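Q: Trace token order:
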Amino acid sequence: MRYQVHIDTYECNSCGSCVALLPELFCLNDLSGKAELTDNREYTADKLAQAQAYCPSHCIAVAEDGD
């Protein structure tokens, strides 16, 4: 199953918890310091849910891809 991931960069506090949990999907932007998605889209639903749950700013939104 595929998922769409959205990061609300306005709410992101640059803590890096998403990067620590799922570095193959998340990184911190060099200029803004905010979380963003990498080009790699391979991840498990469990890890994605974990990154979303541990985000203190609750800025990661996940939805099932309709395709």
Summary: The mean pLDDT is 89. The two ends are 10 Å apart (CA to CA). The CA atoms of residues 49 and 62 lie 8 Å apart. The domain at 3-64 is CATH 3.30.70.20 (Alpha-Beta Plaits).
